[in-house]
Design brief:
The chain is an alpha+beta fold. It has three domains: 71 residues, Up-down Bundle (Substrate Binding Domain Of Dnak, Chain:A, Domain 2); 94 residues, no CATH class; 154 residues, Ribbon (Umud Fragment, subunit A). It contains ten helices and 19 strands. Helix 1 packs antiparallel against helix 2, helix 1 runs parallel beside helix 3 and helix 2 runs antiparallel to helix 3.
């Protein structure tokens, strides 16, 4: 209430003094020592005038201080642009800091974690893609990309490979003699759902691929959790594949490691046994809602026999097999356990490979959106 009755010149003088002191701290290195001493003296005189409520002196010193900074530190060109650039750069630094030390975004590429997390899913259709507004809405909400690829002339399929554009968008590139097609899915999914084969002839007007692809779940990974607590059995956790004998590492020795996301099924010292679809840890049936859901095999999709990894598992090959988890190692299983390449195939995960635990599905906005369990 007292401020309501403060004279305007007093308020303006105080604001001038506060802003000028901040400016001096910010620009002190650009001013000569004599100029700094002079303006600090002006600050003192303005303070005294404010205490005396000497209006002419307050207005005179405020004008003098304003003129000083206007002469010594002129306003830069395009101040709005400079300010926006500073805000943008600060935002980038903060985002990089959060990603490096706290939360890391991660995309689920495969279906090995269904029904908990969805990977990229491809659906072949006979109907044409819907109206562009519908497509835009479904892309924003559900991460759904429609495609309708038609061969313009007679051609032959030469090769098919996975590529990445702009470090984010994944496609299957179908290379023909005369044409090249991009499908927003993996080459394996394209071959499986659209029956594309090397050497396959194409006729003019033939539909090469028509349907849609749903993006995999995008999750935030909590990178600091394991700095304050030990990993828990049942965690959905992310790790890198350095020094793990995955299929990718075997095909490309010395190449960059991948990031995998799996269910942490076994801790150091645990004894693992699998009698499909049951998981036993230390002689007892694995407990917890997540393991119960996985072993029931009824949510989202039925389990299917694993079709895509080598010549079968190397560990826990029979219901009688027991595997002791070594110290500082972790046993990882995919929730879609009949269709997952995991510790049964390439062994345990070293402690130093742990990145963090899955925290939150932030996109797309499907039933999986929210905390990961």
């Amino acid at each position: 209430m007292i401020g309501l009755f403060t004279p305007r010149y007093i308020k303006e003088g105080r604001e001038m003094l506060h802003a000028a002191r901040k400016m001096l701290c910010y620009k002190r290195d650009l001013l000569k020592p004599a100029d700094v001493q002079r303006v600090e003296g002006d600050f003192t005189r303005l303070e005294e005038a404010l205490r005396r409520r000497d209006r002419p002196a307050v207005e005179e010193m405020s004008h003098q201080i304003g003129s000083f900074f206007g002469e010594r530190i002129p306003t830069p060109k395009n101040p709005e642009l400079r300010e926006n650039c500073e805000v943008f750069l600060v935002a980038i630094v903060i985002a990089l800091g959060i990603r490096t030390f706290f939360l890391q975004p991660f995309t689920i590429p495969t279906g090995s974690m269904q029904p908990t997390l969805n990977g990229i899913q491809v659906v072949a259709t006979q109907t044409l893609p819907p109206h562009p507004l519908v497509r835009a809405f479904e892309m924003a909400c559900y991460g759904r990309s429609y495609f309708n690829i038609i061969s313009k002339e007679e051609d032959t399929v030469l090769s098919m490979r996975d590529i990445t554009r702009f470090r984010f968008f994944n496609y299957a590139e179908i290379q023909c003699l005369k044409q090249t097609f991009l499908v927003p899915a993996s080459s394996r999914a394209v071959a499986e759902h659209f029956h594309i084969q090397l050497g396959m002839p194409l006729s003019a007007g033939q539909v090469v691929a028509r349907g849609y692809a749903d993006t995999g779940d995008h999750v935030f990974v909590n990178k600091v959790a394991y700095n304050f607590r030990a990993p828990h059995r049942g965690d959905v956790f992310v790790f890198n594949t350095a020094n793990i004998q995955t299929e990718e590492n075997k095909m490309n020795p010395g190449g960059p490691s991948q990031f995998y996301i799996k269910r942490l099924a076994g801790l150091p010292g645990d004894e693992m046994r699998i009698d499909p679809p049951k998981l036993f840890v230390n002689g007892a049936l694995a407990s917890g809602a997540a393991f119960a859901r996985v072993m029931s095999g009824t949510r989202d999709q039925p389990h299917e026999g694993y079709r895509g990894y080598g010549n079968g598992p190397a560990y826990l090959t029979s219901p009688e097999s027991v595997f002791p988890v070594p110290e500082k190692r972790y046993f990882a299983l995919g929730d879609n356990s009949y269709n997952s390449a995991d510790s049964r195939y390439w062994g345990t995960v070293p402690e130093e490979n742990l990145v963090g635990c899955g925290l939150f599905v932030y996109w797309p906005f499907t039933k999986h959106w929210g905390l990961i369990h």
